Amino acid sequence: MIEYNMPLYRPPAEANSFILQVTLGCSYNKCSFCTMYENKEYKVRKLEDILDEIEVMARLKPDTKRVFLADGDVLNVDAVHILKILDALLLNFPKLQRVSAYASAFNLVKKTNEELILLKEKKLSLVYYGIESGDFELLKAIDKSIKPTKMIEGLNKASDAGLKISAMVILGLGGKSRSKEHINNTAALINACKISYLSTLELGFEKNRKDLFYKRFEKKLGEFTFLTQEEMLKEQVLLISLINPSKAVIFRSNHASNTFALKGVLPKDKLRLIDELNFVLKNYDLSSTKMSFE
After folding, report:
1. 225 falls within a domain
2. Across the chain, where does the E strand assignment appear?
3. Is residue 3 part of a domain?
4. Which residue range(s) make up the domain with 110?
5. How many domains is the chain built from?
6. Is residue 6 part of a domain?
7. What pLDDT, in 10s, does the model give residues 97-146?
8. CB–CB of 186/169 below 8 Å?
9. Three-class HEC string of 218-229
10. For the chain: N or C, fewer Cβ within 10 A?
């Protein structure tokens, strides 16, 4: 069997996928809110080791249909290296339907249009992308200082190449002082992008990350005050109300961090989603067990 370099992360939708580690860790690894790869040194794994693991899995599960390329920064890797891996996956898994990966806020911009088109032709058809926020001042305060215009450029470049984008936004990231700018600028960024899926997460911290986050935030933007669950939901209401995508976007808030799980399609279900959130805000004790709407 394959021995993974832990910890290993994958999106919820990839629960039944073959997880193939192409890299270890994240090449950027500076975001003040993230602990996913804090104890890993970024490394691109040797091609021969990756190909050996593909052959092992092909013997064990020859009918594999989906593959997720881990760790957090595969698209930082040279396109030729990725294409060789995709060729091996296509050769070994005749029923392969989709390959997916995380994409950082920086690496889509680096790839050329031609490279992205080639990757799509080899079944890399979905990337998971952490927008986090569209507010540049907030992005700088959380040590993710990429301009929103660059994010839009990278996301639309990938979309134009045929890749589907599953984007994530973090509610509460700006605290009380930066909430309005966070949501308004994030909605503006989303409206300028061609994404397929959008999900929201609520801000939370692990281990000692809270102190580091507060320190860096307050150095740039002043005091950080954590939002209550009620305020998080009000942010979500505002975000949904402001989103007017150029094409339909499948919306989910089903991550474990969310107070309530919602699902719908924007803009078609905008009013229903807002009504459900307002109903919760009016009628439920937000300190009670999390609920979901089907």
Report:
1. yes
2. 18-21, 23-24, 43-44, 66-70, 98-103, 124-132, 164-171, 197-202, 249-252, 260-261, 263-266, 291-292
3. no
4. 12-292
5. 1
6. no
7. 999 999 987 889 899 999 999 999 999 999 999 999 999 999 999 999 89
8. yes
9. HHHHCCCCCCCH
10. C
For the stretch 67-108, pLDDT in tens is: 999 998 899 999 999 999 999 999 999 999 999 999 987 889
Distance CA 147, CA 111 (A): 17
Q: What stretches of 135-210 adopt beta strand conformation (E)?
A: 164-171, 197-202
Cβ(86)–Cβ(122) below 8 Å: yes
Torsion 101-103-104-110 (CA) sign: positive
97: how many CB neighbours lie within 10 A of its CB?
A: 11
Sorted by sequence, the CB contacts under 8 Å of residue 144 that are 6+ apart come out as 30, 31, 105, 132
189 found inside a domain: yes
Q: Could you tell me the two tokens for 261?
A: 């799980």
CATH number, residue 74: 3.80.30.20
Whole-model pTM above 0.70? Answer: yes
